[in-house]
Amino acid sequence: MLTMDRASNNNNRNGQTLIEAMVAVTLLTVGFLGISSLLSQSLALNRVTANQLTATYLAAEGIEVAKNLIDHDVYAQAAGHGTGWGTCLANLVSINGGFGLDYSTVDCNPGSRQIFSSNDYLYYHADTHLYDYDENGGGGTQTGFMRKVTMIPTGNYEITVNSIVSWPGPAGTVDDVNLEDHFYNYGY
C-alpha cells in the first residue's frame, strides 16, 4: 500500500510540473508578444518623427531661400543694377500659387525658380546631403517631400513668407509642416 501511495504522489507531482511549465511558457509568450508590439510601434513612431524633423528643416530652408531672394534685391540696388527691396517679389507674386524653391535658387530669373505643382517632389543627393528638384537629372533619389513657398507683400514694408512641406503619412494621410516668417524693409 505504501508503494501505491508513492506512485500516485509521483504522478500528481509530474502533472503539477507539466502545468507549471505550460503556465510559464504562456506567460513568456504573452510577454514577448507585448515587447514585440511595443517595438514595432516604436519603430513606426521613429519613422514619423524622422519625417517631421526632415520636413521642418526643409521648410526652414524654404524660408532661407526666400530671404536670400529678398536680400538679393537689396544687394542688386546697392550694386546699381536693381530697384531694391521687394523687386524680385513682384515677379514671384505675379503668378498665382507658390514656388518650388531650392538651394540653387539665387534670383528671380525664370531659370532659377520653379512654379510649384502638386507633383514636384524633392530629390535627395546622398553625395552632397542636399535636397533639390533634380531638374537636370543629377542622380538624386526622389523623396515623398514637396515644398511650396509663397511670398506675399502684407504692406509697403513687409513680406510674409510661408514654406509648406508635405509628405505621405501613415495610413494614406498627408502630413505637412507650415512655417511662416515676416521680413521688414528697415531701410525705407
Structure description:
This protein is of the alpha+beta class and 188 residues long. It has one domain. It contains 2 helices and 6 strands; from the N terminus they run H-H-E-E-E-E-E-E. The chain has a 3-stranded antiparallel beta sheet, with no helix packed on it. Strands 4-5-6 form a 3-stranded antiparallel beta sheet. Strand 5 and strand 6 form a beta hairpin. It is elongated, with a radius of gyration of 31 Å. It starts with a helix and ends with a strand. The model has no long low-confidence stretch (mean pLDDT 79).
Secondary structure layout plus pairing:
Layout: H1 2-78, H2 87-93, E1 123-125, E2 130-132, E3 141-142, E4 146-155, E5 158-168, E6 174-184
Antiparallel strand pairs: 1-2, 1-3, 4-5, 5-6
